[in-house]
Structures are given as C-alpha cells and as structure tokens.
Model the fold of this input.
Amino acid sequence: MSRTGGGRKRRGSGRKQASKDEPHAEVIPDEALALIAAAVSKFGRLAQHHGFDVLDHLMAMARLEADELMRLRSRRKLS
Done:
C-alpha cells in the first residue's frame, strides 16, 4: 500500500479572511443580526408546521439570542 499526502500541513490562524467576492463581506453586524433573526423565524415556522418540535425550539432560542444581541448593540450605541 502507498501513502499519499503524508506529512505535516500548515495550520491556519483560525480566522477566515473575508473575500470581496463574498456577498456577506460588506454586511455590518446589525444587518447580519436582523437577517439571522428573520431567517430563524421563518425556519422555526417551517419546523413547527412539519412537527419538528426540537428544531422549532432551537430556532426560537436562536431568535432570542439574535434579539438580545441587537438590543445590547443598540444600548451600547446610545451610551
């Protein structure tokens, strides 16, 4: 048997570089949170419609988290 691709690989820094070609590279955090909140709400309704109770619950939790982060960001901007 032969081994292919052996040896050590370089490890990245763990940070993903945003490319200018990526559509989300220009989205500001507030817009991203609003988009996420809207998407998980729709996914939650879809999960609820099909009886996927755990997924519905997880989507509700994600929506609460997005709402909380938006609230904290807006409070920080007012200070």
In short: Residues 53-78 form the longest helix (26 residues). Residues 3 and 9 are 15 Å apart (CA to CA). The chain has a mean pLDDT of 82. DSSP finds two helices and no strands in the chain.
